[in-house]
Every structure is written in C-alpha cells, then in structure tokens.
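Posting this for the archive.
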Amino acid sequence: METTITYQDQRKRKLIAFNIVIALLLLLWVPVSIDKMVDFASFKDGILNQPFSDSLGHILIYTLPAFELLTVTCTHRRPFRPNTYRKHLQLHQRNLLAR
C-alpha cells in the first residue's frame, strides 16, 4: 500500500514539475511570437538580413510565427503532451478493437 502511495506522490511531483517547465516555456515563447506579429516590419527586415537567400527568407517570414504559435498550442493542449498522447492513442485503439 505504501509503495502505491509513494508512486502516486512521485508521479504528482513529476507532473507538477512538467507543468512548471511548460508554463515557463510559454512565458518565454508567447511574447516573442506575439512581438513578431505586432512589429512585423522589423521582424521581416531582420529575417531578410540573415545570411541565407531572400527566397528562403520570404518563406520563413510567414512560416516561423505560425509554427511557433502552433508549437505553443500543441504544448499547451494535453493530448499532445508525451504521456497523455500515448494514453490518448491507447484509448483510440481500445475503441477500435471493441467494435
């Protein structure tokens, strides 16, 4: 019985630590992504001044902010997190096998 309680306590601590790390990453990532969209002209000039071709720069200008916000969304939503994603897939497999 104590082993189960200890395991559950460890699991809660890991989950809390994981959520803290996600919250810190979101606090860093979201303002940067929003700044890229708010001050788009500055972001565009900065990307076009990089040492790669302008055609790649024009692609990155529009895809980087979108992918950053998509990554933030996927990090924030539970089904995309590592442990719950696996459980989500297992649930779908059980539902398919039950039919």
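The first helix runs from residue 2 to 38. The chain has a mean pLDDT of 77.
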